[in-house]
TrEMBL record:
Residues 1-27 form the signal peptide. The keyword S-adenosyl-L-methionine does not apply. SUPFAM superfamilies: E set domains. Residues 218-232 have a biased composition (Low complexity). Gene3D superfamilies: chitin-binding protein cbp21 (2.70.50.50). The chain crosses the membrane at residues 262-285. It comes from Actinomadura madurae. This is Chitin-binding protein. Keywords: Membrane, Signal, Transmembrane, Transmembrane helix. CDD domains: LPMO_AA10.
């Protein structure tokens, strides 16, 4: 009988091991860039003292805010909208984290640029495999109202599976939503693939205006080879032909110059006639004197 007991215990242990579900693994994490409310208000980071929203959350949740990596719900299996109730998205419906659900407009926010590429960091205390889905709030979002599923866009703007882990965080790059301005919220869902847990986090952000590229200037038309460059320079930079035609005197015109030329010509003719007439008269007087003397 003493031989059969160990054998029975072994068989019982195998049966129990196969019948009991595996305990959830410690796959903990939250979005760190842009900072989530859980990581931003974590005690010891300074924001819990400088931010009025973090102080208000601490009054509701107390020491639970130190558990920034524990906003997880088991056995969701992609049924997020059914499992997480409206108004409790940031706490994942967990009572001790209700301080993160407070509808306020002064949560610490990360400034972003719409349509820009951004490097995201999902901080983890224990790594695990899984996929991340990032949603953005719709236009007209009001942070002073409880966050509901209808306030989020229907489809995630970014999805990533098993991103690389660097320095204690999953790091991945993606394009931010287009056309967003002002205050918004990024809602991150991390569904692990080798545990039954799904993690949730809220990141408050502010979108500035999109950067505009400077307009390209049209190239200036090239000068033709026949036209000299300014300053008597040829297009190639060597001295070109210089225009030496005198410019008319100020206050005169070519027509007036022509009038003066005609006037001078007429005066010359009149003077010649006058000289000829006077000369003829002198000769006539001399002839008369000679005749009298004879």
């Amino acid at each position: 009988m003493g031989v059969r007991v160990p054998a029975f215990a072994t068989v019982l242990g195998i049966l129990l091991g196969t019948a009991l579900p595996a305990a959830p693994a410690g796959a903990h994490g939250a979005l760190e860039n842009p900072a989530s409310r859980a990581t931003g208000c974590e005690p010891g980071r300074g924001a819990e003292r400088s931010s009025a929203a973090c102080r208000a959350a601490a009054k509701v949740s107390g020491a639970a805010l130190a558990e920034w990596d524990e906003l997880r719900v088991p056995n969701v299996n992609g049924r997020d909208r059914r499992m997480i109730p409206d108004g409790e998205l940031c706490s994942a419906g967990i009572e001790r984290f209700r301080g993160l659900d407070l509808p306020r407009a002064d949560w610490p926010a990360t400034r972003l640029t719409a349509a820009a590429r951004h490097t995201f960091r999902y901080r983890v205390s224990i790594p695990h495999r899984g996929g991340l889905r990032l949603y953005i709030t719709r236009d007209g979002y009001r942070p002073t109202r409880p966050l509901t599923w209808s306030a989020l866009e229907a489809e995630p703007f970014l999805k990533v599976k098993d991103p690389p882990r660097r320095n204690g965080a999953y790091v991945f790059t993606g394009r931010l939503p287009r056309g967003k301005t002002g205050r918004h919220l990024i809602y991150t869902v991390w569904q692990t693939s080798d545990t039954p847990d799904t993690y949730y986090s809220c990141s408050d952000v502010t979108f500035g205006a999109a950067r505009k590229r400077p307009a390209k200037q049209a190239p200036s038309p090239e000068r033709s080879e026949a036209s000299p460059a300014p300053g008597g320079q040829a297009p190639g930079g060597s001295p070109g032909p210089v225009d030496v035609t005198p410019s008319p005197v100020a206050g005169t015109s070519p027509a007036s110059d022509r009038s003066w030329e005609l006037l001078l010509a007429a005066g010359g003719i009149a003077g010649a006639v006058l000289i000829f007439t006077i000369g003829g008269a002198v000769m006539a007087v001399r002839r008369m004197r000679i005749r009298r003397e004879l």
